[in-house]
Amino acid sequence: MTDILAGNTDEKQNPIWAAKLAVFNGKGGSRRPAAVKTGTSNDARDLATYGFLAPPADDQHPALAVGVWMGNSDHSNPRSKKPAISLTAAAPLWHAFVRDYSRAWPVTDFKRPSGLVRATIDAWSGGKPGPWTRAKTTAWFIAGTQPGARRSIDPDGLLYSPACGSYRVDLVKAELGPSSWDGDVADWMRRARGGPGRTGQYDSRTAYFWKQSSWGGAIAGACYRTRPANDPGKNGKGGKGHGGKPGNSPKPPTPPEPTAPPVTAP
Questions:
Q1: Rg (the chain; Cα; Å)
Q2: In this structure, are residues 130 and 154 in contact, taking their beta carbons and an 8 Å threshold?
Q3: How far apart are CA 122 and CA 143, in angstroms?
Q4: Contact 22/91 with Cβ under 8 angstroms?
């Protein structure tokens, strides 16, 4: 967990968060490792940033964990038409305090605890790479829980189902929570088949994660095939390349337009 959170202060891993959270107060302006997480409630009433530094190697300096919360003391909604988020409000305050408070401290890094192993996994679904794999990465596991081990965490290929001659992203299959969630998951898949920016009933939009252009593959759904131009079509009747009508294969549907957000009373 520390390794994941520390990536938020490493510009090589997460340049957007690191721009606000990376602490450069070591010798010669070197970066001080820190593990941090921001959090913003949906209505922006609560802005928070929590994090900690690697424990010092000596007994002259204390360990440090800092939490910052911002919001109205009566828990009312922010009055701004465009409220701040944690990354633009609580994070800079957290950064300024930690930077100044630890300025004279020696820089120490997080130590890896014993009993961990690093394994190669499918970058999108976790688990062991397989025929569904489009990208790989590495991750830390408690020994015995890595892919292929007896107590492995993620079932291999959980995110994918074989369909349309390959593997497609099937989030309903991958959802291991209550069955009551499946309807919302299926609705997201329906919208995502039309691409990013498709609005749902709660004004949420389908979106790719930062610097991505996919959700790990095509979203599971109906399979469509367009007949080649020189295919004579069913029963040998003229295809496009034979002076006749195009073949009768169904055409892919036009992606739906974003739905309008719900109308609420003033």
A1: 25
A2: no
A3: 18
A4: no
* Contacts of range 41-45, beta carbons closer than 8 Å, 24 or more positions apart: 43/77, 44/77, 44/78, 44/83, 44/84, 44/85, 45/71, 45/72, 45/75, 45/76, 45/77, 45/78
pLDDT tens for the chain, 266 residues: list them: 999 999 999 999 999 999 999 999 999 999 999 999 999 988 899 999 999 998 887 777 778 999 999 999 998 988 888 889 999 999 999 999 999 999 999 999 999 999 999 999 999 999 999 999 999 999 999 999 999 999 998 889 999 999 999 999 999 999 989 999 999 999 999 999 999 999 998 888 999 987 789 999 999 998 865 445 554 444 444 333 333 333 343 444 443 433 333 434 43
- Structure tokens given for 81: 């038409």
CB distance 34 to 51 below 8 Å = yes
Is the pTM of the predicted complex or chain greater than 0.90? Answer: no
Q: Is 58 helix (H, G, I), strand (E, B) or coil?
A: coil
DSSP H or E segment with residue 165: none
Tokens 């609580």 map to which residue? 90
* Measured distance CA(183)–CA(191) in Å, rounded: 13
248: left (phi over 0), alpha (psi -120 to 50) or beta: alpha
CB of 100 closer than 8 Å to CB of 32: no
Q: Of 183, 212, 181, 207, whose CA–CA distance to 194 is shortest?
A: 207
